[in-house]
Amino acid sequence: MKAFILSTDKDLMASMQRICEANKPSVAIIPSVPSMQAEGGLNALNSPDLILLDANSYAGKAIGMLENLAQRYPKAVLMLLSSDRSPETLIAAMRLGVREVVPLPAAQGDLEAALSRITEKFDRTEKDEGKIIAFISCKGGSGTTFIAANLAYALSTLGRKRVLLIDLNQQFGDVALYVSDLKTSVALSEVCSSVERLDGNLLETSALHVTPNLSILAASDQIESSAEIRPDQFGIFLQIARQHYDFTVMDLGRQINPVNVRALDASDRVYPVFQQSLPYLRNGRRLFDIFSALGYRREKIQIVLNRYDSSFSLDAAEFERVLGQPVVHRIPNSHEIVNESINQGLPVLKMARSSVISKCLVEWVNTLVDVGTPATTSLIRRIFVRNFASNEFSK
Ligand SMILES: Nc1ncnc2c1ncn2[C@@H]1O[C@H](COP(=O)(O)OP(=O)(O)O)[C@@H](O)[C@H]1O
Ligand SMILES: [Mg+2]
User: Higher model confidence: residue 385 or residue 110?
Assistant: First the structure.
């Protein structure tokens, strides 16, 4: 890992240099700061993995400098050292993706701890940038919550990914109950309202743990107190979530509101969920108009047909014609299994591993985690070969 330090404070520079050398793994300091104005980008060998900026050396200019640095070195981890602990500065820093803010004057131990947190995560961050995916319903009862919850569980078990599942249904949020018998205790609105203190640890302690790899946060825990989530705070919350989870999966319900627009903006992939009937298609058309008004790339949106039945007259081709995009996922109609899963609060993969719905989930997970690697094949084998004998639920 290579770092450069931006500071005019000679003592701080020297102590950071010592800490970087002593850290395990050690961090090399790039001696001269490359010119920010240089055209054509830097030689890759010279671009830093980590940038430490001492805000006190550049009074009033630090946030602007961070902005430039974040743009110029999008892959670099940013660390800010500053005696300014105002919420405005912290929020501005987080918005720019600063990983660590160390208050100045800093004890040597604090600097060491912050650096080792960064180097520990460095490998993982390089390989696995967290992804954000959103499910949105084209009409009530489409199966959005069922699919979001079950895909999140599948990613966390089959894909072995760390997953945060977020229920953005302001009232009557029930996503946790689709895959567990637990009730959320801390509301997302509460977590967002103190976003300036939020880090990975606080996020983990606020969430509900369904399994060690699957955590859930719901918009609100009580019907009567659906406290407001501020869109700007939610945007920052998502940046932090992305840094700490491999996948952040959101159930947006069927609302288009400022918070959901933030969620959609931040998403790498959006899954609108349809069923094969005209009202879904009509609402879907309107939703797609909103997506294009929001300027989303077509590849970001992937159509899901739930309760799919190829014999229905309103077939996938009609959806593709009206919406102008391919239907990417088809989840079969499987009344018995879906209802049993929901009623018991058990994910389908756990309850009926060899069912057709589980098979669809496995394929879906494969589209989201490194497709084509040998692990993908073994993923399918792990589930199906082992469970082929007990396929009484298969339909
Ligand atoms: N693939 C499916 N096959 C059969 N029934 C389904 C399927 N998906 C969902 N359902 C049924 O639809 C109901 C509504 O699902 P839900 O996920 O709560 O919808 P939404 O969140 O879009 O309102 C569920 O209670 C379940 O009975
Ligand atoms: Mg729902």
Answer: 110
| Ligand 1 pocket, residue 280 CB under 6 Å | no
Q: Is the pLDDT of residue 67 over 60?
A: yes
Question: Is 268 in contact with 132 (CB distance < 8 Å)?
Answer: yes
As a whole number of angstroms, the distance between CA 8 and CA 14 comes to 11
Å from CA of 253 to ligand 2 middle: 5
Q: Quick check: 354 and 388 in contact, CB under 8 A? A: yes
Assigned CATH topology for domain 131-370: Rossmann fold (3.40.50)
The residue extents of the domains of the chain are 2-127, 131-370
Q: What is the pLDDT of the chain when averaged over all its residues? A: 84
Q: What is the pLDDT of residues 89-117, one digit of tens each?
A: 888 888 888 888 899 998 889 999 999 88
Q: pLDDT digits over 321-359, tens only? A: 999 999 999 999 999 999 999 999 999 999 999 999 999
Query: Is ligand 1 within 6 A of the CB of residue 146?
Result: yes
Is the predicted pLDDT of residue 382 greater than 70, yes or no? no
Residue 276 in contact with ligand 1 by CB distance below 6 A: no
Closest ligand 1 atom, residue 335 Cα: 4
Strand partners, 249: 133, 165
* Best residue among 330, 338, 349 to mutate for probing ligand 1, ranked by most atoms within 8 Å of CB: 338
Domains 2-127 and 131-370 share a fold: yes
Which residues neighbour 153 within 8 Å (Cβ) at sequence distance 6 or greater?
163, 179, 210, 211, 214, 347, 349, 350
* Domain 2-127 grouped into CATH 3.40.50.40: no
Q: pTM of this prediction?
A: 0.68
Atom of ligand 1 nearest to the CA of 357: 1
